[in-house]
User: What shape does this take?
Amino acid sequence: MFSNLRTEGGITNHLFIPVSAQIFDFQKDMIEVVASSDTELQRIADEGKLITFFQLKNRVADVRPARVEYIRNGQRRTFELTSAAPNDELLHKSPSLLRKFMRFRMINKVDPQPCQH
Assistant: This one.
């Protein structure tokens, strides 16, 4: 029923709830994976999809890939496991309650978005 509802990246097509009504920024903080040693993140890069930083952070904390290049807020960044500081935010998972209930879909970099199944 809501397969074409878009609320990611500061854009919405919802008739009644504007972007300004979104309480949290999880869906606004979209990143583009450029390259990664993790096969799942590399697949996302190859498909030209955007994901939330929330998803990237939890994937990196779980899998610990050797390298991830991504674009966040227009800036290209590189995470390397061997040189990452212990307090690097990509090394720390979100609280388990958030990870359990917060699921975000990948989106295309350009519109229109395809229908989701």
Summary: Strands lie at 30-36, 49-52, 67-72, 75-80, 107-108. The CA atoms of residues 6 and 12 lie 5 Å apart. The mean pLDDT is 83.
